[in-house]
Amino acid sequence: MFYRPADGHPLPHNPFNAIVTPRPIGWISTQDADGTPNLAPYSFFNGVAYVPPQVMFASTEAKDDQDNTKDSVANIRETGVFCVNIVESAARDAMNTSSAAYPKGTDEFAKAGITAERCETIDCPRVGGAPASLECKVTQIVKIEGVSNYVVFGEVTGVHMRDDTIVNGRFDITTFQPLSRLGYRDYTVIKDLFQLSRPDD
Protein backbone atom coordinates (compact mmCIF):
# COMPACT_ATOMS: atom_id res chain seq x y z
CA MET A 1 0.00 0.00 0.00
CA PHE A 2 0.96 3.64 -0.38
CA TYR A 3 -0.40 6.76 1.23
CA ARG A 4 0.44 10.44 1.45
CA PRO A 5 0.60 11.56 5.10
CA ALA A 6 -0.98 14.89 4.19
CA ASP A 7 -4.07 12.98 3.05
CA GLY A 8 -4.26 10.70 6.08
CA HIS A 9 -3.89 6.91 6.13
CA PRO A 10 -6.42 4.09 5.65
CA LEU A 11 -5.42 2.06 8.73
CA PRO A 12 -7.10 2.10 12.16
CA HIS A 13 -3.89 3.42 13.76
CA ASN A 14 -1.10 5.62 12.42
CA PRO A 15 1.71 3.32 11.19
CA PHE A 16 4.46 5.98 11.19
CA ASN A 17 5.74 5.29 14.72
CA ALA A 18 5.67 1.55 14.04
CA ILE A 19 7.82 2.00 10.94
CA VAL A 20 10.50 4.11 12.63
CA THR A 21 11.53 1.60 15.30
CA PRO A 22 13.07 0.70 17.61
CA ARG A 23 13.69 4.12 19.15
CA PRO A 24 15.83 4.74 22.24
CA ILE A 25 14.06 6.52 25.09
CA GLY A 26 15.56 9.69 26.49
CA TRP A 27 14.29 10.14 30.05
CA ILE A 28 14.73 13.89 30.20
CA SER A 29 15.19 15.56 33.56
CA THR A 30 14.99 19.32 33.99
CA GLN A 31 14.02 21.90 36.56
CA ASP A 32 12.25 25.22 36.27
CA ALA A 33 13.70 28.58 37.28
CA ASP A 34 12.35 28.06 40.81
CA GLY A 35 14.10 24.70 41.16
CA THR A 36 11.08 22.40 40.80
CA PRO A 37 12.25 19.17 39.10
CA ASN A 38 10.59 17.56 36.10
CA LEU A 39 11.06 14.14 34.51
CA ALA A 40 9.54 12.89 31.25
CA PRO A 41 10.35 10.24 28.61
CA TYR A 42 10.82 11.09 24.93
CA SER A 43 11.18 8.44 22.23
CA PHE A 44 12.22 10.91 19.54
CA PHE A 45 15.71 10.91 20.99
CA ASN A 46 19.23 10.09 19.82
CA GLY A 47 22.89 11.00 19.74
CA VAL A 48 23.82 13.21 16.81
CA ALA A 49 27.60 13.86 17.00
CA TYR A 50 30.79 12.48 18.55
CA VAL A 51 33.05 15.55 18.91
CA PRO A 52 31.86 17.33 20.88
CA PRO A 53 29.28 14.74 21.95
CA GLN A 54 25.77 16.00 21.23
CA VAL A 55 22.24 14.65 21.59
CA MET A 56 18.75 15.67 20.56
CA PHE A 57 15.18 15.02 21.58
CA ALA A 58 11.94 16.21 20.07
CA SER A 59 8.81 17.33 21.88
CA THR A 60 5.67 17.03 19.78
CA GLU A 61 2.81 17.89 22.13
CA ALA A 62 1.67 20.83 24.22
CA LYS A 63 0.08 21.33 27.62
CA ASP A 64 -2.58 23.91 28.38
CA ASP A 65 -0.46 25.39 31.19
CA GLN A 66 2.68 25.89 29.07
CA ASP A 67 3.44 28.13 26.09
CA ASN A 68 2.57 25.76 23.21
CA THR A 69 4.95 23.07 24.50
CA LYS A 70 5.58 20.70 27.40
CA ASP A 71 7.32 21.22 30.74
CA SER A 72 10.68 19.87 29.56
CA VAL A 73 11.10 22.38 26.74
CA ALA A 74 9.71 25.23 28.85
CA ASN A 75 12.21 24.46 31.63
CA ILE A 76 15.12 24.20 29.20
CA ARG A 77 14.19 27.60 27.78
CA GLU A 78 14.46 29.02 31.29
CA THR A 79 17.63 27.26 32.47
CA GLY A 80 19.56 26.24 29.36
CA VAL A 81 20.32 22.74 30.67
CA PHE A 82 18.87 19.22 30.79
CA CYS A 83 19.93 15.67 31.57
CA VAL A 84 19.25 12.56 29.49
CA ASN A 85 18.80 9.44 31.62
CA ILE A 86 18.92 6.01 30.00
CA VAL A 87 15.91 3.80 30.79
CA GLU A 88 16.56 0.22 31.83
CA SER A 89 13.98 -2.54 31.64
CA ALA A 90 13.64 -2.59 35.43
CA ALA A 91 12.51 1.06 35.39
CA ARG A 92 9.71 0.63 32.85
CA ASP A 93 6.89 1.27 35.34
CA ALA A 94 8.54 4.38 36.79
CA MET A 95 9.21 5.68 33.30
CA ASN A 96 5.59 5.11 32.35
CA THR A 97 4.36 6.88 35.50
CA SER A 98 6.46 9.92 34.64
CA SER A 99 4.92 10.12 31.16
CA ALA A 100 1.56 11.42 32.39
CA ALA A 101 0.56 15.02 31.63
CA TYR A 102 0.73 16.30 35.21
CA PRO A 103 0.06 19.97 35.99
CA LYS A 104 2.92 22.43 35.74
CA GLY A 105 5.09 22.31 38.85
CA THR A 106 4.52 18.60 39.56
CA ASP A 107 7.58 16.66 40.70
CA GLU A 108 7.58 13.49 38.55
CA PHE A 109 10.55 12.13 40.50
CA ALA A 110 8.28 11.95 43.53
CA LYS A 111 5.29 10.64 41.54
CA ALA A 112 7.38 7.81 40.12
CA GLY A 113 9.29 7.03 43.32
CA ILE A 114 12.61 8.00 41.72
CA THR A 115 15.53 9.38 43.73
CA ALA A 116 16.82 12.62 42.27
CA GLU A 117 20.56 13.26 42.42
CA ARG A 118 22.36 16.43 41.43
CA CYS A 119 24.40 16.70 38.26
CA GLU A 120 28.08 17.66 38.33
CA THR A 121 28.45 20.14 35.45
CA ILE A 122 24.94 21.64 35.30
CA ASP A 123 22.31 22.76 37.80
CA CYS A 124 19.80 20.01 37.16
CA PRO A 125 18.55 16.78 38.76
CA ARG A 126 19.27 13.34 37.31
CA VAL A 127 17.79 9.89 37.87
CA GLY A 128 19.66 8.26 40.73
CA GLY A 129 20.80 4.76 39.85
CA ALA A 130 20.17 5.08 36.10
CA PRO A 131 22.52 2.98 33.96
CA ALA A 132 23.83 6.20 32.42
CA SER A 133 23.03 9.89 32.47
CA LEU A 134 24.20 12.60 30.08
CA GLU A 135 24.45 16.14 31.44
CA CYS A 136 23.71 18.61 28.65
CA LYS A 137 23.89 22.31 27.93
CA VAL A 138 21.39 23.34 25.28
CA THR A 139 22.84 24.53 21.99
CA GLN A 140 19.66 25.01 19.97
CA ILE A 141 15.91 24.73 20.26
CA VAL A 142 14.56 24.44 16.74
CA LYS A 143 10.90 24.91 15.83
CA ILE A 144 10.00 22.47 13.05
CA GLU A 145 6.85 21.97 10.98
CA GLY A 146 3.79 21.26 13.13
CA VAL A 147 1.98 23.20 15.81
CA SER A 148 3.99 22.07 18.85
CA ASN A 149 7.04 20.37 17.33
CA TYR A 150 10.38 21.41 18.82
CA VAL A 151 13.79 19.74 18.56
CA VAL A 152 16.19 20.38 21.43
CA PHE A 153 19.92 19.92 20.82
CA GLY A 154 22.43 19.76 23.63
CA GLU A 155 26.17 19.32 24.10
CA VAL A 156 27.09 16.63 26.61
CA THR A 157 29.20 18.17 29.37
CA GLY A 158 29.20 15.27 31.84
CA VAL A 159 28.64 11.52 31.67
CA HIS A 160 27.55 9.23 34.52
CA MET A 161 27.81 5.44 34.13
CA ARG A 162 26.72 3.04 36.83
CA ASP A 163 29.68 0.94 37.91
CA ASP A 164 28.06 -2.40 37.11
CA THR A 165 27.52 -1.40 33.48
CA ILE A 166 31.26 -1.34 32.73
CA VAL A 167 32.52 -4.81 31.76
CA ASN A 168 36.03 -5.39 30.42
CA GLY A 169 36.42 -1.70 29.75
CA ARG A 170 33.19 -1.35 27.76
CA PHE A 171 29.77 0.08 28.55
CA ASP A 172 27.77 -3.16 28.38
CA ILE A 173 24.04 -2.68 27.76
CA THR A 174 23.31 -6.35 28.48
CA THR A 175 23.94 -5.58 32.16
CA PHE A 176 20.73 -3.56 32.33
CA GLN A 177 18.76 -4.25 29.11
CA PRO A 178 17.72 -0.84 27.74
CA LEU A 179 14.05 -0.22 27.04
CA SER A 180 13.15 0.88 23.51
CA ARG A 181 9.96 2.27 22.05
CA LEU A 182 8.15 0.60 19.18
CA GLY A 183 4.89 1.66 17.54
CA TYR A 184 1.53 2.18 19.20
CA ARG A 185 1.85 1.15 22.89
CA ASP A 186 4.57 -1.42 22.21
CA TYR A 187 8.05 -1.55 23.72
CA THR A 188 10.96 -3.95 23.53
CA VAL A 189 13.97 -4.82 25.67
CA ILE A 190 17.43 -5.22 24.13
CA LYS A 191 19.04 -8.48 25.26
CA ASP A 192 20.93 -9.93 22.31
CA LEU A 193 23.92 -8.42 20.52
CA PHE A 194 25.95 -9.29 17.42
CA GLN A 195 28.84 -7.54 15.71
CA LEU A 196 29.46 -6.51 12.12
CA SER A 197 32.73 -5.07 10.83
CA ARG A 198 32.75 -2.54 8.04
CA PRO A 199 34.33 -3.73 4.78
CA ASP A 200 37.18 -1.22 5.20
CA ASP A 201 37.95 -2.08 8.85
Describe this structure in words.
Pfam families: Flavin_Reduct (PF01613). One of its GO terms (molecular function) is FMN binding. InterPro entries: Flavin_Rdtase-like_dom, Split_barrel_FMN-bd. This is Flavin reductase. The protein has 4 helices and 14 strands. It is mainly beta and 201 residues long. The strands form 4 sheets. The chain has a 7-stranded antiparallel sheet. Strands 1-13-14 form a 3-stranded antiparallel sheet, with no helix packed on it. β7 and β8 form a beta hairpin. The longest helix is centred in the middle third of the chain and has 9 residues, at 71-79. The radius of gyration is 17 Å and the shape is globular.
Notable characteristics:
201 residues; mainly beta; Pnp Oxidase, Chain A; seven-stranded antiparallel beta sheet; three-stranded antiparallel beta sheet; 4 helices; 12% helix; 35% strand
In short:
With 201 residues, the protein is mainly beta. 12% of the residues lie in helices and 35% in strands. The protein has four helices and 14 strands.
User: Within the CATH hierarchy, at the fold level, what is the topology?
Assistant: Pnp Oxidase, Chain A
- Tell me the name of the CATH homologous superfamily: Electron Transport, Fmn-binding Protein, Chain A
Q: How big a fraction of the residues is strand? A: 35-45%
Please give the radius of gyration in angstroms: 17 Å
Number of helices: 4
Strand count, sense and barrel status of the largest sheet are: 7 strands, antiparallel
The CATH architecture term is Roll
Rounded mean pLDDT is 95
* Structural shape: globular
How many angstroms does the end-to-end distance come to? 39 Å
Q: Specify the helix fraction band.
A: 10-25%
Pfam families: Flavin_Reduct
Domain Flavin reductase like: 18-173
Organism: Pseudosulfitobacter pseudonitzschiae
Protein name: Flavin reductase
